[in-house]
Amino acid sequence: MSGMQVIFLIAAAVTLGSAIAAVSARKMLHAALWLVLALLGVAVIFALLEASFFAVVQVLVYIGAISILVIFAVMLSRTSLTDEGSQTNRGWWVAALGLVIVLIGVVAALSLWPKWTAMPGALPAAATDMATLGKQLVDPNGYLLPFELSSILLLAALVGAIYTAVDKKEEKP
Amino acid sequence: MIPLSWYLILAAALMSIGLFGVITRKNLVGALIGIELMLNAVNINLVAFWRYFHNARPEMDGLVFVALIFVVAAGETAIGLALIISAYRSRKTVDVNELNLLKG
Amino acid sequence: MSFLADPVNFITQWLSTLLIGWGASASFTQLILYIIGAGALTLGALFFTVFLIWLERKIGGRFQDRLGPNRLGPWGIFQPIADMLKIFTKEYITPTGADKVPFNLAPILAVGGVLAMWAVIPYASTVFGVNFNIGVVYLIAVGAIGDLGIIMAGLGSNNKYALLSGFRAVANLISYEVPMVLVLLIPVLFSGSLGMNDIVKSQQTWNIFLAPLAALIFFTTSIAENGRAPFDLLEADSELVAGFNVEYSGLKFGMFYVADFLHSFTAALVFSTVFLGGWRGPGAETIPILGFVYLILKSSLVYFLILHIRFTIPRFRIDQMMDFNWKFLTPISLVLLMVTIVIDKLIPTDLTFIRISVHWAVNILIWVAADRILSAALKSHPAKVVARPRPLARPPHVAVDEKPGGEI
Predict the structure, then answer these.
(1) How many alpha carbons fall within 13 Å on the CB side of residue C48?
(2) Can you state the percent helix, strand and coil of chain A, rounding each to 5?
(3) What residues of C are in contact with residue A52 (Cβ under 8 Å)?
(4) A52 reaches C (C-beta below 8 A)
(5) Alpha helices per DSSP H over C211-349
(6) A153 interface with B at CB cutoff 8 Å
(7) Distance (Å, rounded) from C-alpha C321 to C-alpha C175?
């Protein structure tokens, strides 16, 4: 069992464990904090896969911004801050059973794929260089169009979120 | 060395846990947490496939996709939470079973 | 390789031969060496904090026309040791109803976020923690982990003032990250790489000469990220009763305290590395210890400037802070980023003097234009004061619309 495998098993255990805790915690605040731990585990997995830039961006964007947004939303919907009842709908065990069956089925079907146990090849040096990613993103034969569209998407999301969340009561005299 | 199957199983498990959260959570913010987990599972899948089967040139196909998913997830979380806050203001609840009126 | 030319590798080789001689395997040796390296860096930073506490109190005292601590030891240098003894021996009081795990984890995250920044800073030409090729993004990411510690502190104490202060603090901190990231991109674009080592190596002329307004904005946002005066509304004593760390006592509060002081010196270190050329100086490439001395000198200068600002300028209100960020710093950062890069491509790079003068001219132009626009905007929306006309201390470009006859 090499060192990388040990690290992967620990990171996967942390990720899956905190994901399960995040979707089944009673208090929403604890769920948000377990989500932070799950995202940190995913960042470790990215680092293991030698996508180091995305590991750091995962911490920056998801943990640094999105988790804080989720915690703010938990605080602003104040009843959920003190809610202590059962947090899942009735019949949750049906969903759990169904999903476990689907998961086992998907894994079994995929294991028939010949490349299931592929091992990683060598990564060319240009692949870990950020300049390559940048050049791909602004190349007209590359991914320029999705890049520009995503910036417009973010602008629309920004305007929409501000408009939806603004408190209209403040404008009444 | 880690075979590809380990990463794919991890991503599939994370996706089903996220789906479980979206289906069964009573609280809207809890459902959003499930959606975040699903998006992360997709990211793990993409990065694993990039690492194991990247093209000769360009080398960055999968990673560009991951970057765009980051962008979309951030935008969608912002709007989702704005909607949740707005729904809370008008209905004073974020329980999915209570938000069953189309009016208002 | 000699000890003087490459100290870290020399010690690493010596230790690994020693450990392998004792029978350890190669990967285990590497693990031990990583742990020793990380531990040495962390302990160095934490011991340095003791010195920083004394320095800040002495210099603060001098700024305020008093002596500062002078009882324990010559010039009071044992004062921080007395402080530490007091903090270590205080009782940990956990409020009833507090969430135990976030409450206890928050100081660890706050200190960890600051200490993790020390890993990517190049201290000399061959002495650094990790040579990340994405060091700049890493710095901002671990800053974000520190913010998470603050929010956990606010939510974990069962105290509505701590909660309110925690949210206000985090809203402030994530707002000030936006111009910080934008402005940090300018040295990255000048050097062509996100790694701190490359940024230092490419500063033939220091970046502060090529992008002075960017340096100023980065300096301001670093102070705001730290939560120092004049941005210290988040933990001010006369405001929300010490803010998010009101329920902490003993070493847990000590950790927040250490994080605060260490963060300001870390901000000075990062500023010197990115804008003032880091360890560069005459003769620093061949003798690493000289590079380290240069870096300490530069960051001490910047740290003194941070202290100067702290003890001189009064506090901002929260709405002034937000206005300053979103209406002034972010637009300027965006315009600065675009204009600097376009101008830099238009000038041939070997005429350094012309390059510096053009950049300075453009930066001053942008600043003056922003100032004019801001003054015009302030004049057109005067603050309405309903009161008898009374003498107000206000800058001349801010108009106040007084309606006489009200009672105040």
Answers:
(1) 17
(2) 75, 0, 20
(3) 132-134
(4) yes
(5) 212-226, 251-275, 288-312, 318-323, 330-346
(6) yes
(7) 10
Which CATH number describes the domain made up of B4-91? 1.10.287.3510
For C5-28, b/e burial (b = at least 16 CB within 10 A) is: ebbbeeebeeebeebeeeeeeeee
A110-167: pLDDT as tens digits: 888 877 777 777 777 676 778 888 888 888 888 899 999 999 999 999 999 989 888 7
Residue A84 three-state SS: coil
* Closest chain B residue to the Cα of A139, Cα to Cα: B58
Whether chain C has a CB inside 8 Å of the CB on A29: the answer is yes
- Nearest CB to B33: which of A32, A96, A123? A32
B98 touches chain A (CB under 8 A): no
- Residue C268, pLDDT above cutoff 50: yes
What ipTM does the predicted assembly reach?
0.90
CB B8 within 8 A of CB A113: no
Q: What's the rounded mean pLDDT across residues B80-98?
A: 83
Give how far A60 is from chain B: nearest CA, Å.
11
Mean of the pLDDT values across residues C334-359? 84
Question: Quick check: A72 contacting C, CB < 8 Å?
Answer: yes
Domain ranges of chain C: 1-70, 90-346, 350-408
Q: Does A141 touch chain B (CB under 8 A)?
A: no
Who has greater pLDDT, C301 or C242? C301
With beta carbons under 8 A apart, name residues in chain B contacting A158: 75, 78
Specify the pLDDT at position C249. Answer: 82
Phi/psi at C67 (5° precision): -85, -25
3-state secondary structure B37-75: HHHHHHHHHHHHHHHHHCCCCCCCHHHHHHHHHHHHHHH
Per-residue pLDDT for A31 more than 70? yes
- The pLDDT, as a whole number, for residue A173 is 46
Is residue C128 within 8 Å of C197, Cβ to Cβ? yes
Which residues in chain C (121-150) have CB-CB distances under 8 A to chain A? Answer: 132-134, 137-138, 140-145, 147-148
Q: Do C155 and A71 touch (CB under 8 A)?
A: yes
pLDDT surpassing 60 at residue C207: yes
- Tokens 């700049």, residue? C136
Q: Which amino acid is present at A40? A: L
Mutate to test the interface with A, among B1, B2, B76 (most CBs of A within 10 A): B2
Residues counted in chain A: 173
Domain boundaries, chain B: 4-91
Residue whose tokens read 């190669």 = C26
Sign of torsion over alpha carbons C395, C400, C405, C406: negative
| Nearest alpha carbon to residue C326 among C143, C199, C107, C172 | C172
Q: Which residues in B lie closer than 8 A to residue A116 (C-beta atoms)?
A: 3-5, 8
Question: What is the pLDDT confidence band of residue C100, given thresholds at 50, 70 and 90?
Answer: confident
Residue A172's pLDDT band (cuts 50, 70, 90): very low
